[in-house]
């Protein structure tokens, strides 16, 4: 089945570059030039991938991402000309799977998109679901944390937590081997793929977002930083 992509970008030259790059990967590509029309096109087309400029007319990419996430589970790559850390953090917290900073090369965009497509895409919130066979259903437990791997759902105690795709995959790896200290480099290779080698800042950003969403139990964060190495789960108790 052919994959589809939507490029939401107000700069005509950059929009054309992204469209050409994705088309050369075999994707069917549509475009939009502002936030409102971009959200409408996502609802209309249900694309597999959305590239989303941060500085859009109408409303910005952060608001567009928030609205898209209300009904779509497309992979979202946020593209920004701003180096400000807060923009990146807000974009990722809103539900983006990755970000690129302008200027970027077509090769980098291709690598990141290919890595995203190797990860499973959850069923759209509005779409049908097919339960996995009982014998294949994987559910992980660690203290108050329950991770249903097949349903891609997470609970802390009785409360379900809404995680992005990357946040879920990070948590699942940590909970599978909770006593292991995971280096940032190992998590990067395991969750993102080899194309992101060296970009450990991605791990730090997503672990920070994951901690915020999981909250604390008994006054402790659920994910511990091991100084100079990486991360591990707090002991269950």
Written overview of the protein:
This protein is α/β, with parallel strands linked by helices and 237 residues long. It contains eight helices and 14 strands. It has two domains: 4-117, Response regulator (Rossmann fold, 3-Layer(aba) Sandwich), CATH 3.40.50; 136-233, Winged helix-like DNA-binding domain superfamily/Winged helix DNA-binding domain (Arc Repressor Mutant, subunit A, Orthogonal Bundle). The chain has helices spanning 12-23, 35-45, 61-69, 85-94, 106-117, 165-176, 184-192, 201-214, and strands at 4-8, 28-32, 49-53, 75-80, 98-101, 139-142, 145-148, 153-156, 159-161, 182-183, 216-217, 220-221, 223-226, 230-233. The strands form four sheets. It has a five-stranded parallel sheet with strand order 2-1-3-4-5, sandwiched between helices. A four-stranded antiparallel sheet has the order 6-7-8-9, with helices on one face. A hairpin with a 2-residue loop joins strand 8 (153-156) and strand 9 (159-161). Helix 2 runs parallel beside helix 3 (61-69) and helix 6 (165-176) crosses helix 7 (184-192). Mean pLDDT is 83; it is low at 122-135.
